[in-house]
Structures are given as C-alpha cells and as structure tokens.
Specification:
By secondary structure, the protein is of the alpha+beta class. Helices cover 23% and strands 28% of the residues. The protein has 5 helices and 13 strands.
C-alpha cells in the first residue's frame, strides 16, 4: 500500500512511479472524475505521470496498453509499489491463433452472466464493446489497445472472405470505428452493445441486413474486419 504523500514526494524527485493495483479500480477521462474512461483489474500495473495534478485526481498511464486516464486520489491506497517494471510478452501469430478458443469462451461465459452495457467497463460483469474485447484477449494473455478505433488500427485488415472465428469486426462512421465485436463464424459475432442502439449488454448478432433491428442497425455501420497477429507492446515495454 502506498500513500498520496509518498507519491507526491516521488513526483517531486522524479523517481520512477510504477505501481500494481491490488484491487479493481475505476479510472476517469478527466480530473473532474465525472465520466468513467476505463477500469483496471487487480494485478494490472500503472505509472503516475509527472504532469500537473488535480487535488482530487492523479493522471496515470496503464502499463499494458499505454492508456491514460485519471485516478481518484482517494484510491491511491489501492496501489502498491510494483516489484518489477512491466515487460510485454511477445507472442507469435501461431501462438495467438491457438489461444483464440479461450478468447471466444471468455466472451460467451461473460454473456451468460447478468450484465449491462457500461461505458468504460473492462472489469465485468459489465463491459463496453472494446472493453469486452480487450479483457477477453487479456484473459488469454494477449493484449490489445483499449478503444475500438485503436484496436482497428492495431489489427491486420482482412476481408469477409478471409474472416475466421476470433477475428474482430468493426462498426462506426466513414471517419472512425466506434464499435467492435468478435467473430464467431457462420455470419455471427458477439459484442457488448449499448442501450440506445443495441441490447444493453453482451449479445450475439448476425452481420446481415436480414437480421433483426439491432443486427440491421450495426450492419449498416459495418467498416471492416481485422485479425489479431500480435500482442500489444507498450511504448515503455
């Protein structure tokens, strides 16, 4: 367990500030702490950034995916000093393919639990779309970037003729991916979709204009598909 005073002292001296979460944490998109940005499951590592800090929050960067967010200062006692700096593990494409059944199984097990869509959710049982993808892959030892548009940029683009179970499918506008799902095969994908457009939680839809209203809505926003061929390597990893 660390204290806010110890963190502030280390920031002044420029000491390395890498910590491990020993409980699940909510992280926010600004120092006002009004909107959830992501979550960090117990065991993840983060750095306190030496930027201007608010009295109510510290800016942090998650080590596994480089994602930046704000940690409430009241939660610093849920951190402990990391014994060793985070180091990414390199996986071959073949190793990743062999782990995809685990990824698919994770999403299906998550769907079997009572859940609803949660913007910023990665810990479960409630997820947002990219949070479900990141967590499912991480459960198999594969790291993806955090957000849908980042995941789209990270994967290897493929066509629907090439798609296989475990590949990702992306939706959004012509400018940017705003939604992501995991391909199951036979035209179906699993995803966590919202309340206004979607199923307010994890569900399975068909990539076709012949599906129900939810499937059709996402089909009209389909952008493309991608294959995970590497595990994300952080800038400092």
């Amino acid at each position: 367990m660390v204290s806010l005073q110890a963190i502030q002292a280390a920031l002044v001296t420029g000491q390395p500030l890498e910590y491990q979460c020993h409980a699940n944490l909510n992280l926010y998109d600004s120092p006002t702490l009004e909107r959830l940005a992501t979550q960090a499951v117990a065991g993840r590592q983060l750095r306190i950034l030496p930027t201007a800090q608010a009295t109510s929050a510290l800016q942090v960067q998650l080590c596994e995916d480089d994602y930046q967010a704000w940690l409430p200062t009241e939660d610093v006692d849920l951190l402990e000093s990391a014994e060793t700096p985070y180091r990414a593990i390199t996986l071959s494409e073949a190793e990743i393919r062999s782990r995809l059944p685990q990824v698919i199984a994770y999403t299906q097990q998550a769907m079997a639990q009572s859940n609803h869509y949660l913007w910023g959710g990665t810990v479960g049982p409630n997820y947002d779309c990219s949070g479900l993808m990141q967590t499912a892959f991480a459960a198999a030892g594969i790291w993806l970037p955090r957000d849908a548009y980042q995941q789209e940029a990270f994967v290897q683009p493929i066509t629907l003729e090439q798609i296989q179970p475990g590949d990702l499918v992306f939706f959004g506008s012509s400018e940017r991916a705003t939604h992501v799902g995991l391909w199951l095969g036979e035209g179906y994908y699993i995803h966590s979709s919202g309340k206004d457009q979607g199923r307010n939680g994890i569900g399975i839809d068909v990539l076709s204009n012949q599906g129900d209203a939810v499937s059709q809505a996402y089909y009209r926003q389909y952008r493309g598909a991608g294959r995970v061929v590497a595990s994300y390597t952080p800038c400092n990893g």
